[in-house]
Amino acid sequence: MRELAARWAISFVAIYVTGLLCFVLPGSIPHISLPFFAAGIAVAAANRWGRSQGIPIFASAAAVNLTMHEPLLAAIGGGAGFGCGALLSAWVLERYGFEASFGRARDVVLFLIAVPLGMMVVPTIGIVGFSLAGIPARSSEVVRWFRWWSDSAAGALLVSPPLIALSRQRLRRFADHWLVGVCWILAMLTCCDGIIFRSDPAARPIVVMVGFLLIVAGAVRFGVVVASAGAIVISSTMAFSLAFGFGMFGQIDEFSGRVTLLAFSATLVMASLIVSALLAERDAAAVDRRRAERHYAQIFNGSPQAIWVHDPIDQNFLLVNPAAQRQYGWTLSEFLARDVSVLAPPGEPLILPAQSLAGGADHTLPIETRHVTREGRILEVEVWMRSIDLGGRPAQLVFAVDVSERRALGKALIDGLASEQRRIAGEIHDGLGQELTGLALSLRALATRAARLQQPDAADLDDLAKLAAHCIQGSKKIVQGLSPLDDAGGNLHSALQSLARRASMSGTPVRFRALGEAPSSVRTDTLDHFYRIAQEAVQNALKHAAAAAIDIELRASKSDLRLSIVDDGRGLPADLTARQGLGMKTMQFRAVAIGGSLVIETVLGGGTAVRCSAPLTAALERV
């Protein structure tokens, strides 16, 4: 309560004294014209301290009118208009999110609209009060309204900004650069001296320009509070020149003088506010950028995965996080003195995709490759890449995840699964299959004997014999699925030919072509992985691609094996990464398990191509 009473007292005294001064001087000098500075105090009080300030604003304005011997109704009308105008301006500012720091350009625009709009209420209600009091106007009501509004608006535009934005922090910039501030004050005094004591009309544009530049310089160097205060000083000096009829603006008639004063005051206020707001936005953007950079740096340096940034042209390392330094064994300075080729194992120069090295498209899927550490240890890694902007220069962000242990575990699981499949296939073939064959032969013999003797159960025995034969065929298909290479005598060509033949039974022709003969020393697990990749690709094409034809091709050379499965279906979905299923992931893992690579892409004209290649150095049996 004490704080509220103190604020009311401050507002009342400040508005009363300032308002009385603006009325006393015109009473002493008939042709004087001053901005009503009390309006600026009222708007600032309502904005900073809330709507309760309407009471002291009304009371102080009414007290000024009563002191000037105005009738009670005129005093009440003037006070009511003054209070309502200040509260309306503050309400509009609050309603549309005004910030008292003038730190945004929109705050300046909002202020320049809200204050003149609110001040329109002052003469509108005030003239009604004077009319009810029976005080005749010395001029037309329109001119009277304009004079009253222009004085109030000019005073509010000039005085309220520094009072609204005033704080110790904003005055600190002036104190920190006090020597520059003293020079600025001297320049302001020189400008005011020219306005009051120089009567040459030709010098007006120069003085106006100098004043404008001083306000801009003050806004740049010291902020909105000091610059707005300078605008008050220059505008007040111009108002005194107009009011007393001497100096640079003393010869201008009253109406032109009011328009000139209002325009010049608004220009100075706009300059101080706009420049301050733009600089504040720039500083805020710089702070946000530095904050974001710190956050990104914390994420980059704190990541447990190896990350680096390199130049896409010369491949030099630009940034390397501590995890990458630990993973590869190089220090930061050693990394920055090298390029990405230092991670290439002997005989494997390509550690990143060719399009990435050329600065091409980003890769949303991980790339399986191998890197070498400083000590010569080979790492199996998954690499993600993304093109970024690094301080205005193009760069590539790389995530390199060491998957050596995971890959070894996965290979062991796949090898174990394949071994178990072969074991089950052997048991079915050698155990269950032989027993089913013996059963089928026995049933066939019994059926033949019963038919010869014309026994009534001959037909039933014949059906059982057929069922047993059907079970034998089913067991053979199971064996083929579990161990297709064993069923094909270990020959990948025969297994793929059989795959194409069985898949063609679905109604979609599947063609197989072999170019070259794979060496007989190629490891069985490598051939099995190739077959499983072809099997998965064909099944995907039949189920999802709506293909009219599928081509399987196996190329064997002295250096590598290449398998391709191409269909003419609908192609890959746009969200391949999100929709990648277990089958596609398994194909990729099988390719990596044999030291090869897998590419899945849309072919020209529609359709999908699955291509797998593996070097023979990794595919041959180890002796």
Task: Please provide a brief summary of the model.
This protein has helices spanning 2-28, 37-49, 54-67, 72-95, 105-119, 121-132, 141-165, 168-176, 178-197, 204-222, 224-244, 254-302, 322-328, 332-336, 354-357, 404-452, 458-482, 484-487, 492-504, 524-544, 576-579, 582-593, 616-619, and strands at 306-310, 317-320, 363-372, 378-390, 393-402, 510-515, 550-556, 560-567, 597-602, 608-615. With 623 residues, it is an alpha+beta fold.
Question: How does this structure look, described?
Answer:
With 623 residues, this protein is of the alpha+beta class. It has five domains: 1-166, Arp2/3 complex 21 kDa subunit ARPC3 (Orthogonal Bundle); 168-300, no CATH class; 303-402, PAS domain (Beta-Lactamase, 2-Layer Sandwich), CATH 3.30.450; 406-482; 490-623, Heat Shock Protein 90 (2-Layer Sandwich). Helix content is 64%, strand content 12%. The chain has 23 helices and ten strands. It has helices spanning 2-28, 37-49, 54-67, 72-95, 105-119, 121-132, 141-165, 168-176, 178-197, 204-222, 224-244, 254-302, 322-328, 332-336, 354-357, 404-452, 458-482, 484-487, 492-504, 524-544, 576-579, 582-593, 616-619, and strands at 306-310, 317-320, 363-372, 378-390, 393-402, 510-515, 550-556, 560-567, 597-602, 608-615. The strands form two sheets. It has a five-stranded antiparallel sheet. A five-stranded mixed sheet has the order 6-7-8-10-9. The longest helix is centred in the middle third of the chain and has 49 residues, at 254-302. The protein is elongated, with a radius of gyration of 45 Å.
